[in-house]
Design a protein that fits this description.
The protein is globular, with a radius of gyration of 17 Å. The protein has one domain (2-144, 203-275): 3-Layer(aba) Sandwich (Rossmann fold). It is an alpha/beta fold. An eight-stranded mixed β-sheet has the order 1-2-4-3-5-6-7-8, with helices on both faces. Helix content is 40%, strand content 17%. It has eleven helices and eight strands. It has helices spanning 2-9, 53-56, 89-101, 113-124, 145-157, 161-171, 180-195, 207-211, 230-240, 257-260, 262-275, and strands spanning 15-20, 27-32, 39-43, 65-69, 106-111, 129-135, 217-222, 244-250.
C-alpha cells in the first residue's frame, strides 16, 4: 500500500480518490483530469491495481475525466471479493461503480485483463459504453502457456529484481529496450507477487457475449505478444464482434505495449477517440 500511495503521488496529474459501494463490496476509484471533461473509465490489468495505470496512459487526461477503479479481488484497495468471471457478474460490478460515480455513459478502455473488463462491460451494458478500447486483451484467445509459463514460474518462485527484470523482458518486444516504465512495472510486480495471492486470468468471452458488443470498439494487439495469440485474437474479433471498428497488430510491441510503443499507442488511441476510426 505504501508503494501504491507513492505511485499515485508520482502520477502524471493530481488525483482524488473515492470509495464507491457496490453489491459486490466497496470499490476504490482513483480520479484525475478536468472535472468538466467527458468521462473515461480506465481498467488496469488482472491481478494489478489502479496506482500506475494513469502513468501508462498519460495522454488520456488532456481531454477526459478519467476514472480508474481497483477491480474487486485484485491487488488494490477494493473489496477482496472474487465472484465468478463467467457471465455478467463483472459487468454488473462495473455498472454499480458507474452508478455510484453518477456516470451514465462512458468511454471504456483497458489493457490485458482490463481489456477483458472493457469487453465484458460492452457485452452486457452496451448502452452505457460510448466507445470501447481493448489493448493486449484477454478474452479473445486462451493464454499461450508454452511461451509464458517459464517466466511466470520463475517470477513467482523467486521474486527478486533479477527475476523481475527477466520476466518483464519476456513481456516486452525483443527489439524494445528496457525503460523507466518497464522498470516501474517490474518493481510493482515484485511487490504484488510477494504480498498478494494472485488469481488465474479471467479467460475467454463466448461468441454469444462478443456478438452483444455493438458499441464502436478498437482492439490492438502487439506483434510480439507472448501471453496471447495476437493473429487469432484479431481474427476472432473481426469475425464475431458487430461493433468492431478496427482490430490491428501494433508493430514492435509486446504485452507491455504502453512501454514498447507509447507514441504509436497515443496517436492511434487519440485518433479513435477523436474521429472514431
Amino acid at each position: 500500500m505504501a508503494m501504491y500511495d507513492a505511485a499515485l503521488t508520482a502520477g502524471p496529474v493530481p488525483y482524488e480518490t473515492r470509495m464507491v459501494g457496490t453489491r459486490f463490496g466497496d470499490t476504490h476509484v482513483v480520479i484525475g483530469g478536468r472535472a468538466d471533461a467527458p468521462p473515461l473509465v480506465l481498467f488496469h490489468g488482472w491481478n494489478g491495481n489502479a496506482c500506475n495505470i494513469g502513468a501508462e496512459f498519460p495522454f488520456v487526461f488532456a481531454g477526459h475525466r478519467v476514472y480508474m477503479p481497483d477491480i474487486i479481488g485484485n491487488s488494490g484497495k477494493s473489496a477482496p471479493n472474487r465472484p465468478p468471471t463467467a457471465g455478467s457478474t463483472y459487468a454488473d460490478w462495473a455498472c454499480d461503480v458507474l452508478d455510484g460515480l453518477g456516470l451514465d455513459r462512458v468511454i471504456a478502455m483497458g489493457i490485458s485483463g482490463g481489456g477483458w473488463m472493457t469487453l465484458k462491460l460492452a457485452a452486457y451494458a452496451t448502452v452505457r459504453v460510448i466507445k470501447g478500447i481493448a489493448l493486449c486483451t484477454d478474452g479473445l484467445t486462451r493464454l499461450t502457456w508454452e511461451r509464458a509459463i517459464l517466466g511466470m514460474s520463475g517470477a513467482a518462485l523467486w521474486p527478486n529484481p533479477t527475476t523481475m527484470r527477466w520476466f518483464v523482458r519476456t513481456f516486452k518486444s525483443p527489439d524494445a529496450p528496457m525503460n523507466q516504465q518497464s522498470e516501474d512495472f517490474g518493481r510493482g510486480l515484485q511487490s504484488i507477487i510477494k504480498h498478494y495471492r494472485s488469481q488465474r486470468n479471467p479467460g475467454l468471452l463466448s461468441d454469444d457475449e462478443l456478438r452483444r458488443i455493438t458499441s464502436p470498439l478498437l482492439v490492438l494487439m502487439g506483434e510480439h505478444e507472448r501471453l496471447f495469440d495476437s493473429p487469432k485474437a484479431l481474427e476472432r474479433a473481426r469475425a464475431v464482434i458487430p461493433g468492431l471498428v478496427a482490430a490491428e497488430l501494433v508493430p514492435h510491441a509486446g504485452h507491455l505495449m504502453t512501454a514498447d510503443q507509447p507514441e504509436y499507442l497515443e496517436a492511434r488511441v487519440n485518433r479513435f477517440l477523436r474521429e472514431g476510426n
